[in-house]
Amino acid sequence: MVPHLWFNQEAKEAAQFYTSIFPDSKVTNITTIRNTPSGDSDVVSFRIAEYSFMAINGGPHFQFNPSISFFINFDPSKDESARENLDQVWEKLSQGGTPLMPLQEYPFSKHYGWIKDKYGLTWQLMLTNPDGEERPFIVPSLMYVQDVVGKAEEASDFYLSVFSESRRGDIARYPAGMKPDEEGTVMFTDFMLEKQWFAAMDSAQSHNFKFNEAISLLVRCKNQEEIDYYWEKLSSDPKAEQCGWIKDRYGVSWQIWPEVMGEMMANGTTEQLNRLTNAFLQMKKINIESLIETYQSK
């Protein structure tokens, strides 16, 4: 699964910014698809510390918000300069950004802060406890608010049932006396889907945002059988079904994509890319056979 970031026109600029901040990071591919509903759009693939992201220039339709953020785990047992490196990343993300929780000590971490960067994307930088079970450097985090508050455990159980090689990690619940959060709802949990870690939490605080299409989770499928399976399991809103996009029962957006799509976009000629774009823009659920046939036609 690859987090997919929807920008207005800043996808390339943002990818270059992020890859300049983190080690072992680089832009891996830029493809321009033409004649989309938003005009010509750059699709950018990049890696941050070996973690894959995609981004698109899709126009001003969706804006980032903290409902999906990214934990960045700095582990002192792996890096003796973990705290200093965290501070450096915080400083760079602070340029034009806005702290949501100040960088300081909290009960759950000796050094933690939550920040919105200049593009609106939010990051949770944490000095981790080296005595706990190891977690990857980057973990996407979902926050259940408004009409889905209290659903973090149910939602993560649902995802665990859909994806293989999955298991729950930690779970911590709100105790009594933390109104408006209800006792027993999820203060924090993390879970593995297809060997990839995610986190989730409930928040009954007053929030003016919820899940939207600005950040979606792109599921790369090997064949049509996998596409059909994830589409059936995850899609909950027929109105959201378009170009491989779906929305689940909790409002989280997903893209159910064939792996061959990435290969065609990376290697196709201008004519092939135009045919490919015209084909998938007409589809709801992606049909691999039809897509390949259109791409290869003369």
Anisotropy-based shape: globular
> Fraction of residues in helices?
25-40%
Low-confidence stretches: none
Strand element count: 15
Straight-line distance between termini: 33 Å
Average residue-wise pLDDT: 92
What does this structure look like?
This protein is α+β, with helices and mostly antiparallel strands and 298 residues long. It has seven helices and 15 strands. The protein is 26% helix and 37% strand. The strands form two sheets. An eight-stranded mixed β-sheet has the order 6-7-8-5-9-12-11-10, covered by helices on one side. A seven-stranded mixed β-sheet has the order 2-3-4-1-13-15-14, with helices on both faces. A hairpin with a 2-residue loop joins strand 3 (39-48) and strand 4. Helix 6 packs antiparallel against helix 7 (288-296). The model has no long low-confidence stretch (mean pLDDT 92).
Keywords for this structure?
298 residues; 8-stranded mixed β-sheet; 7-stranded mixed β-sheet; 15 strands
